[in-house]
UniProtKB/TrEMBL annotation:
Molecular function via GO: 5-methyltetrahydropteroyltriglutamate-homocysteine S-methyltransferase activity; zinc ion binding
CDD domains: CIMS_C_terminal_like
EC number: 2.1.1.14
Protein name per UniProt: 5-methyltetrahydropteroyltriglutamate--homocysteine methyltransferase
BP terms from Gene Ontology: methionine biosynthetic process; methylation
Enzyme class: transferase
Gene3D superfamilies registered for this protein in UniProt: 3.20.20.210
Pfam families attached to this UniProt entry: Meth_synt_2 (PF01717)
Provenance organism: Cellulomonas hominis
């Protein structure tokens, strides 16, 4: 991965707003109308997206997760629901939903109960239930996957399309580097399991299957981003609140499985994204970054992306006063957020960047977003946030290289 050797580099966490044409095509495909010309439409959309990022000043662009279908402008789950179509051994069941999920997991009797039973939601039940509150309260249940047979990776054609589209776009725009996202085994494991005898066996089976996607992205000469909000986010889905020691043991099983899936792959081409879930809510029961940062650093990746701009986690830049970033690794702190329509001022963005640069070294910081912007805020606001990200990085560069 390229480093901030002479200026603060910029990137983002993955998802970007889809074009109206792509959303309409995805909706038609979801309804069973697999219209001709979709592949060309998708390829052109990715090239246009990368060109827009490069023209804006984003140093490390991505494909916006355009190959992970969204059929509506608002969609919080495409980053992981795409995997339902790329894994064999699953059965989609009508009426099932991750909101109703209840899975026995890990040591210490840790039980993940799903979004609908979050402790944050229980604390703010009235706000979550009120559609006018501005708090995300879930969508209508959709067919949900259950493992019913040995898991396998069936997404070879889809990931080949993803990497080909991004490679073409990078070549067309002259961008030096680009990334594609892929789900971590631990986050994928929040689906139901009627086949594997234990949760740990299920997670490791997912690791073996998803490795094929990881290898395909790396082999295409791209940067692989592992999306794994569950490492921090599962905490809020466990009722009652577990002992931290039990939760960390539960989480480290998932880290071990991920490292198994990444074995032999170059760490300097892998970045890892951690967050507390991108839904718009109070987040009062989020796990502190200080409790999870050392577990995150056990992931065999060359860079770590995490939320650092929203009002629940911005103060946690101080974690890096005590946590040691391993030699040669990077951080991609979020310095603009997905959880508010307010567009950050470039001066604030620069201040956020400088805090991290002074703790871990300016060359080890790439300015990024908290989470994906696509599907969470209006496209016009999303692009304004990327503009202020670039402007803030330019200000920070002037100060840090003065």
């Amino acid at each position: 991965m390229i480093r901030s050797t002479d200026h603060i580099l910029t990137s983002h966490a993955g998802s970007l707003p889809r074009t109206p044409e792509l959303i309409a095509a995805n909706a038609a495909r979801e309804a069973g109308d697999d219209a001709a010309g979709y592949a060309e439409l998708l390829a052109d959309a990715v090239t246009g997206l990368v060109r827009r990022q490069v023209d804006l000043g984003i140093d490390v662009p991505g494909d916006g997760e355009f190959g992970k279908a969204m059929s509506s402008p608002i969609d919080y789950g495409a980053w992981w629901s795409y995997s339902f179509q790329r894994l064999g051994g699953l059965e989609l069941r009508d009426g099932a939903s991750w909101i109703l999920k209840d899975v026995q997991s890990g040591p210490g009797d840790v039980r993940v109960t799903g979004f609908g039973r979050r402790r944050d939601r229980a604390r703010f039940e009235e706000a979550y239930a009120d559609p006018t509150s501005g708090v995300f309260h879930g969508g209508a249940p959709k067919p949900f996957p259950t493992a019913v047979a040995p898991l396998s990776y069936t997404g070879g054609d889809a990931v080949a399309q993803d990497v080909a589209n991004l490679r073409t776009a990078l070549d067309a725009t002259g961008a030096q580097e680009g990334f594609v996202t892929s789900i971590a085994p631990g986050s994928a494991a929040r689906m139901d399991n009627d086949f594997y005898g234990t949760d740990e066996e299920f997670v490791w089976a997912l690791a073996d299957a998803l490795r094929e996607e990881y290898v395909a992205i790396i082999d295409a000469g791209l940067v692989l981003q592992i999306d794994d909000p569950s490492l921090a986010e599962n905490w809020d889905q466990i009722t009652p609140e577990p002992a931290l020691e039990d939760y960390l043991r539960f989480s480290e099983i998932r880290v071990e499985a991920l490292n198994h899936a990444l074995r032999g792959l170059p760490e300097d081409r892998i970045r890892y994204h951690l967050c507390w879930g991108s839904w718009h809510g109070p987040h009062t029961t989020d796990l502190p970054m200080a409790d999870i940062v050392r577990t995150m650093l056990k992931v065999n990746a060359g860079a770590y992306s995490f939320e650092a701009a929203n009002v629940r986690h911005e103060h946690e830049w101080r974690v890096w006063e005590d946590a040691t970033l391993p030699e040669g690794r990077l951080i991609l702190p979020g310095v603009v957020g997905h959880a508010t329509n307010v567009v950050e001022h470039p001066e604030l963005v620069a201040d956020r960047i400088e805090r991290f640069a002074r703790l871990v070294g300016r060359e080890n910081v790439v300015a990024s977003t908290d989470c994906g912007l696509g599907g969470r805020i209006h496209h016009q606001i999303a692009w304004a946030k990327l503009e202020t990200l670039v402007a803030g990085a330019e200000l920070a560069t002037k100060r840090l290289w003065a």
